[in-house]
Structure formats: structure tokens, C-alpha cells
Specification:
The protein is an all-alpha fold. 74% of the residues lie in helices and 0% in strands. It has one domain.
């Protein structure tokens, strides 16, 4: 990632109409969305596996993946807003469907975290969150990819804007693809790190309750399925 960031600022890039030097943001903005999508996909898979198996660790993995996906999505919106400021002259425009629908998709996932906080019972919380996560994942392709393609847009590929292929000259590709791999790998590492932290919390709570003479922090059937 250090090499990617350094190269993004130091390499020479071709002169692209409208974008010019801001085309360097391609190395950050788009890979951030890739990492977000990969994280949400991982969260969906883990939620489905939790509904099928009831294993508590699948719920923790799904929660971690979704939270990390939200983090990368917010970073994607910020880099997109900065890009818009220097190419469109505004930090945000409500006439741009991709910006607004992406923000809507993130709000749907942020509601996932709020839903989890609404339950005290860990079993009900995990089941409700898993079902909601499946619903949220079904909206993502439509809000991020399908619907924006059907509407007028200022983004590359639309009328009056350079096509995406114009932005991916060989100089940018040499950095863009490693950046995409790097951001996805970074997301995977953050998911693993956060899950290990949640695992440690669960183990510590179990030890405390066992020391107090109780069977565990979760219901017996929930804890028995924990890896």
C-alpha cells in the first residue's frame, strides 16, 4: 500500500480532458469501492452461513465484514466528493445518481449496525442482523451498479465525460490493479483483526460467567455451536 500511494502521486500520467491531474484519484476511489463490495459480499456469505449453522463466530465475521465495508464505503464517498470538487466544482450534487444512490446504500448498511444495538439477546440479535444483511446485500447491486447506469450521470462513460478506458492508460493500470488488490487485502486483514477482537471479548465474557457459576454469556444452544 505504501508503494501504491507513493506511485499514485509520483508517476507521470497522460493528459485526460476534464480530469487532468485528478485522474490520480482513480487509484484510490475505485479500489475503495472494490474493497467495500468485497467486504459486504463476505458479510453476506457469513450471514447465510450463520443462518444455516447457527455458529456464533459466523455472526461475528458477518458483523466485522459489514463494519469494515461501511468504513471503506465512507472512504469511497469522501474521495468521490473530493474528486467532484475539483472536476465538477462542488463537493456534492443531488443531480448525480451515483453519489446519492451510493450514500443510500451506505445508510442501509449503517442501519444494520443500529439494528444490532436494538437487541439485548445475542441469539435474536444475530438472527435479525443476518436476515437484514441478506436484504441489504440484495439492494447493493441495484443502487451501486444497475440503476446509475440507466440515469444521466457526470461520471466517466457518460456524455461529456471521458470514458473509463481513457482513464486506464498503461501508467495508471500499473498502479490501479495493485491498488485494487491491496485495498481488498487490507479489508480482509481488518475483518480478521476485528473478528479476533470480538472472539476475545466472547471468550472473556464466557470465562467471567463460568467463574460466577453460570454456563455462559449466551444461551446454551447458541454457545454450544460456537467454534
Amino acid at each position: 500500500m505504501t508503494a501504491v500511494i507513493a506511485a499514485a502521486f509520483l508517476i507521470r500520467i497522460p493528459e485526460i480532458p476534464i480530469l487532468y491531474e485528478t485522474a490520480r484519484n482513480l487509484v484510490f476511489h475505485v479500489p475503495l469501492w472494490f474493497a467495500m463490495s468485497a467486504s459486504f459480499l463476505a458479510g453476506l456469505i457469513c450471514s447465510i452461513r450463520f443462518l444455516a449453522s447457527g455458529k456464533a463466530r459466523m455472526d461475528r465475521l458477518a458483523e466485522s465484514a459489514t463494519v469494515v465495508g461501511i468504513l471503506f464505503g465512507i472512504a469511497g464517498l469522501i474521495t468521490g466528493s473530493i474528486w467532484a470538487r475539483f472536476t465538477w466544482g462542488t463537493w456534492w450534487t443531488f443531480s448525480e445518481p451515483k453519489m446519492n444512490l451510493s450514500a443510500m446504500a451506505l445508510m442501509i448498511y449503517i442501519a444494520y449496525t443500529l439494528l444490532r444495538s436494538a437487541f439485548d439477546d445475542p441469539v435474536k440479535r444475530a438472527k435479525a442482523a443476518a436476515v437484514y444483511n441478506v436484504f441489504a446485500a440484495t439492494t447493493l447491486p441495484f443502487l451501486i451498479y444497475i440503476i446509475p447506469r440507466q440515469l444521466p450521470s457526470l461520471h466517466p462513460g457518460a456524455d461529456g465525460s471521458p470514458a473509463f478506458s481513457d482513464m486506464t492508460a498503461i501508467e495508471l493500470r500499473l498502479v490501479f490493479y495493485p491498488a485494487a488488490i491491496g485495498f481488498i487485502a487490507l479489508a480482509a486483514w481488518l475483518i480478521q483483526l476485528r473478528t479476533r477482537w470480538l472472539d476475545a471479548q466472547a471468550e472473556w465474557q464466557e470465562i467471567q460467567f463460568e467463574h460466577a457459576g453460570k454456563s455462559g454469556v449466551d444461551s446454551p444452544e447458541y454457545m454450544n455451536k460456537k467454534q
